[in-house]
Amino acid sequence: MAVVGVGEIELDYERSGAGPPLLLIMGMSGTALSWGEPFLDELRRDFDVIAYDHRGVGASSRLEGPTTIRQLAQDAAGLLTALEIERANILGISMGGMIAQELALAEPSLIHTLALGCTYCGGPGSTLIGDEILRRATEARASGDRELALRTSWEVNVSPAFADDAQAWARFVEIGMRRSVALAVIAEQARAIYEHDTSARLGEIALPTLIMHGTLDQLIPVQNARMIAELIPGSRLEIFDGVGHLFFWEQPQRAAELLRAHAAVHA
Predict the structure, then answer these.
(1) How far apart are the first and last CA of the chain?
(2) Which of 95, 164, 202, 242 lies deepest, with the highest CB count within 10 Å?
(3) How many structural domains are present in the chain?
(4) What is the domain extent for residue 234?
(5) For residue 60, which of 28, 31, 80, 33 has the smallest C-alpha distance?
(6) Would you write out the chain's pLDDT as a tens digit for each of its 267 residues?
(7) Domain of 44: which CATH number?
């Protein structure tokens, strides 16, 4: 990882692969490691992949005071400018997908293609995590038991079938142990998510847009993807049947191929 100045802060990022630039924008409580090597390896074949940690995460600057999705979108734009990237393909997942929406609305000239995964736009008809899943995840994080917190996060982020994959679980634990996110930062990210609403503005997006979502997503139900697809003119919706929130963990090859084709057709 390397650190670069972005306005008044610094962001920790990793750059690898070769091809047109692809900026990966991670979700709540995630880090640049959370994309998982199988997915990153697939992307590196065709893209110059940039993954970074949000403010408050990893070696990026500490989170000072409240944040907003718009502020995090400004960070993403600033990172591209700092790296002297004029235009990039963008993939944002979960909270990162909300950041990508705001980035597309504020700085469309920086974006070649837009991809939104397992995300939410707010407004009437949208829905976030259910009360039972929220309670379970919150209690696990607050327990102080790191292994319980990781296991609960794993089980709510993937489908039941994939949760039983011992090798994938071991990779998830290793990533969680290598780099964690402070509870205070996660709480602030959650507050920003609940304030997010681009629903009335998504019709302004005129970028080639791909939307991906798993049918068994427990954190952001798949109906949100269908809503976003209806609101962004000309967007393409890809549904991953039987897959949870982390669709790019469960089906890294398919997710990468969709991104590859999406970027190529609009080259």
Answers:
(1) 29
(2) 95
(3) 1
(4) 2-265
(5) 31
(6) 899 999 999 999 999 999 999 999 999 999 999 999 999 999 999 999 999 999 999 999 999 999 999 999 999 999 999 999 999 999 999 999 999 999 999 999 999 999 999 999 999 999 998 788 888 888 888 888 888 889 999 999 999 999 999 999 999 999 999 998 999 999 999 999 999 999 999 999 999 999 999 999 999 999 999 999 999 999 999 999 999 999 999 999 999 999 999 999 887
(7) 3.40.50.1820
